Amino acid sequence: MHKMPSQDLDRVEPINRAPSVSKGSIVDADDRRLRPQGHKAELERSSFWLGALSLAYSISNSWLTYASSFGLVLIYGGGWIVFLGLAELCSAFPSSGGQYHLTYIIASPKTRNFGAYVTGSINILAWWITTCSGLIYTAISAFGCAAAWFPDFAQQRYQVYLCYLGVTVLSLIPIYTIKQRYLDFMTESTTGFSLIEMVLTIAVCLGMADGDYAPGTIILENRGISGWNTGTGWLLSIAAALYCFAANGAVTHIAEELPNPGRKLPQVLLVDRDFEN
Fold it and tell me: What was the pLDDT predicted at 151?
């Protein structure tokens, strides 16, 4: 990445969609917009609006989380307001650096290095947590299906861990084998399968319902089987309503793969909130 002096970050040129010709080369308007931010474009802009929206949705498949905490999502609307600010920053400074780069741009010269470092570190930690939680959920679900079909099957923890490692390897294969121009199709297909799964899950749950549970059986009885103690398990469960917000932050990192990101990224950030709800 080619860095420019920090004082150049304070100057952002008005957008002109026409390509510029300089010294025999043509510079795209989107690429030219990156230069006042301190670097030049390195990636091919092969993604589209629907592909970016599908990427945001498919990362966490948040409908499954909302199924257990939909009431909280309806009550608390602050998350959407927070993303208005992120959408505004992405509109002004579209960059694949995302939050840590935005922090560096808007922070004061004395604090921008430290602020960007802390923000980037938190981002990496969030990626690890989200990735690990999604992979282990897949492994646990696979053994849950096996236990439903074969009641006598007694799973062992090491088996779940081996399945977790297998899912990790399978998740890495598309990254190294699928060409960049096909990534949009992959994310759109994943979103389509997720929506079909949602419809089937709702239909099966309604069709197989057998009476109503008394509130006491859900609230008063301690039936936690997560392995955590009661207090920790409760804190983790109420945080489930915030799980979907990881997807919105992720799409900021494909700004340099999206044509006209200053307009498309804010649209994806805001539409994804309505799409997931």
Answer: 83
Q: Has residue 151 been placed in a domain?
A: yes
Q: Tell me the residue range of the domain where 26 lies.
A: 1-40
Residues in the chain with pLDDT < 50? 1-3, 9, 12-15, 17-22, 24, 26, 68, 71-72, 74-75
pLDDT at 186 (0 to 100): 76
In a domain, 201, yes or no: no
State the DSSP string of the chain. Answer: -----GGGGG--PPP--S-EEETTEEE-HHHHHHGGGT----S-----HHHHHHHHHHHH-THHHHHHHHHHHHH--HHHHHHHHHHHHHHHS--TTTHHHHHHHHS-TTTHHHHHHHHHHHHHHHHHHHHHHHHHHHHHHHHHHHHHH-TT----HHHHHHHHHHHHHHHHHHHHHS-GGGHHHHHHHHHHHHHHHHHHHHHHHHHT--S---HHHHHTS----SSS-HHHHHHHHHGGGGTTHHHHHHGGGGGGGSSSHHHHHHHHHHHHHHHH-
Residue 232, pLDDT score: 72
pLDDT attached to residue 127? 78
Same domain, 176 and 235: yes
Same domain? For 64 and 19 the reply is no
pLDDT at 166 (0 to 100): 92
Same domain (yes/no): 162, 26: no
pLDDT for the residue 163? 92
Same structural domain, 156 and 136: yes
Please tell me the pTM assigned to this model. 0.57
